[in-house]
Automatic annotation (TrEMBL):
EC number: 1.5.1.5, 3.5.4.9
GO BP annotations listed: L-histidine biosynthetic process; methionine biosynthetic process; purine nucleotide biosynthetic process; tetrahydrofolate interconversion
Family: Belongs to the tetrahydrofolate dehydrogenase/cyclohydrolase family.
Start and end residues of each Tetrahydrofolate dehydrogenase/cyclohydrolase NAD(P)-binding domain: 137-278
Keywords noted in UniProt: Amino-acid biosynthesis, Histidine biosynthesis, Hydrolase, Methionine biosynthesis, Multifunctional enzyme, NADP, One-carbon metabolism, Oxidoreductase, Purine biosynthesis
Residues bound to NADP(+): G163, R164, S165
Subunit structure: Homodimer.
Protein name in UniProt: Bifunctional protein FolD
Domain Tetrahydrofolate dehydrogenase/cyclohydrolase catalytic: 4-118
Keyword check for Disulfide bond: no
CDD domains linked: NAD_bind_m-THF_DH_Cyclohyd
Gene Ontology CC annotation, any one: cytosol
């Protein structure tokens, strides 16, 4: 079994990205990212901190805007308008999920789609499905970079994705379809899930249930991508895949932590650098 080592791939990408940051700075542009975090969800705080750290390491400008859970939609929308108009900010995102008091769609729609580094804005979703992406959702982009790094060719492969979220499942499907895979999206209403997942050459799991996928879901030699960020019975970070159970059946697998997570951040940073390059080139 080959471990798909997100930390290793991320640091290899970091070297290339640091050079791009340096080159764009020579042209007088420093790539700038902002992250809006609402409330004090501890997991979100960890991700946000990791994003800040990576941005700083790459020599980028990075600002965190932290609102209390009681923030009003208006305050949030005002901040978004300010970032839309801030020329130093190439891209920004609002960490999801938001508190129930806030209309998530309205917030996402308020982000200028040219600065929507998450690729969640409706026009960016459309561009992605047409096959002419502007910005791409970071987790999906990170997964594709990872597979490319390990020379996993998707052309003609059967891909099964468990999970149909706008953040992960759907964009992974669009991007793998563009690589000529045969893509199936499974979800909570799917019948005979195990029979379906056993047809997968590549299985992507993004459901948010700790250790849900065991070896009886997997074809011998499958590539398994675990997008889960869950806690096991001892409160330890784990994925949606029972790693120890599947490790002798899968040919390649992402660990949690150290798999998709670091790649998500890499993809996000790369997206901001691309937007900064566009700014520098006018
Ligand atoms: N608008 C928006 N965009 C997102 O991209 C977004 C979001 N909202 N909401 C939450 C999810 C989750 N996410 C992660 C990013 C990095 C790690 C990460 O760095 N993980 C490390 C460390 C995890 C740890 O130590 O806790 C790892 O897997 O090795 C995890 C999860 C981005 N998300």
């Amino acid at each position: 079994m080959i471990l798909l080592d997100g930390k290793k791939v991320a640091s290899a990408q970091d070297e290339k990205m640091a050079q791009r940051v340096a080159a764009v700075k020579e042209k007088g542009v420093t790539p700038g990212i902002a992250v809006i975090l609402v409330g004090d969800n501890s997991a979100s705080a960890v991700y946000v901190r990791n994003k800040q750290r990576r941005a700083e390491k790459l020599g980028m400008n990075s600002q965190l805007i932290h609102f209390e859970a009681g923030v009003t939609e208006k305050e949030l929308l005002d901040k978004i308008a300010e970032l839309n108009n801030d020329p130093q900010v190439d891209g920004f995102l609002v960490q999801l999920p938001l508190p129930d008091t806030i209309d998530e769609d309205r917030v996402i729609n308020a982000i200028d789609s040219s600065k929507d580094v998450d690729g969640f804005a409706p026009d960016n979703v459309g561009h992605l499905w047409i096959g002419e992406p502007h910005t791409k959702p970071a987790t999906a982009a990170g997964i594709l970079t990872m597979l490319d790094y390990y020379d996993v060719d998707l052309d003609g492969k059967n891909v099964v994705i468990i999970g149909r979220s706008n953040i992960v499942g759907k964009p992974v499907a669009a991007m793998m379809l563009a690589k000529n895979a045969t893509v199936t999206i499974a979800h909570s209403h799917t019948k005979n899930l195990k029979e379906l997942t056993k047809t997968a050459d590549v299985l992507v799991v993004a459901i948010g249930k700790a250790k849900f996928v065991t070896k009886d879901y997997i074809k011998d030699g499958a590539v398994v991508i675990d997008v889960g960020m869950d806690r096991d019975e001892n409160g330890k970070l784990c994925g949606d895949v029972d790693f120890d159970d599947v490790k002798d059946t899968a040919s390649m697998i992402t660990p949690v932590p150290g798999g998709v997570g670091p790649m998500t951040i890499t993809a996000l940073m790369e997206q901001v650098i691309e937007l900064a390059e566009d700014r520098a080139n006018g």
